[in-house]
Amino acid sequence: MRIITSMVIITAFLAYILGLLDPSMWAKAGRNLAIFTSHLGFEENLLGEALAAVYETMLLSLIGVSLGTIIAYLASPLATPSIFSPRLSVVFRLIASGIRSIPAIFWAILFVILIGPGPRAGALALSIYTSAYLTKLFYESLESIPQEHIDTLRIIGLRGLSLSMALYTHIKRQVLSNILFMLEYNVRTATILGFVGAGGVGYYILHYISLLNYPAVITFIMVTTVFVILIDTISYVLRTRLG
């Protein structure tokens, strides 16, 4: 109860500082909401375009997971001190942590600058972020393997890559579960990468917002929402079975 009370006090204080308790702000929000809802609708003629945008979003998500998994699969053992040297592990962990600390949308901005706008920038952004995130999840799973088992594999002559591949067979379920989790994450993230010109459905949503075409915006949001819920549900069911 003390924690909740403290959170209420902190929230009220920060809300006051940020102006969230200003009645005029909420009055303005109410008026804008009324205007927005009066323009709501669903444009059937844009359904094909929305499905094509969602398809592009799915491609971005899949390439991000597939390429990111390959990189993480190779990098994670190097970040595991029980497999390679602790010094080398520290270096790879720092690299992965540094990449992971930068949100995917910022990587998208970088690649838009480097190679221009479009889905290629989004694909590279998701791939590099996914690789860093999966590297952390994979090496944590590798660290859960008993040291005695690792020593046994070393005794029979396994080293480096061969040792890593043998250890991966013991955490196959965790690896697959982590990949499915990142697919969920990438699908949601890919929907907003278009806001910075990196392809996906976000580009179309931003375009129609700029035109004040709210029915079109709702059409794309609804199609995207159904798609994301479907992917999340399938991924959740598969991860539950793996568990």
State the end-to-end distance.
34 Å
Tally of strands: 0
How many domain units?
A: 1
Q: Proportion of β residues?
A: under 5%
The CATH homologous superfamily is named MetI-like
Radius of gyration: 23 Å
CATH topology: MetI-like fold
Task: Provide mean pLDDT, rounded.
Answer: 87
CATH class: Mainly Alpha
What's the architecture in CATH terms? Orthogonal Bundle
SSE series: HHHHHHHHHHH
Query: Structural class, from helix and strand content?
Result: mainly alpha
The low-pLDDT segments are none
- Major sheet summary line: none
The helix count comes to 11
Shape: globular
Draw up the topology in text.
Blueprint (H helix, E strand, L loop, with lengths): L1 H17 L4 H16 L8 H32 L7 H15 L3 H12 L3 H25 L3 H9 L4 H9 L3 H22 L7 H10 L3 H29 L1
Overview of this protein structure:
- The model has no long low-confidence stretch (mean pLDDT 87).
- It contains eleven helices and no strands.
- It is globular and about 70 Å long.
- The protein has one domain: MetI-like fold (Orthogonal Bundle).
- By secondary structure, the chain is an all-alpha fold.
- Helix 9 (172-193) runs antiparallel to helix 11 (214-242).
Quick rundown:
This protein has 243 residues and is mostly helical. The chain has helices at 2-18, 23-38, 47-78, 86-100, 104-115, 119-143, 147-155, 160-168, 172-193, 201-210, 214-242.
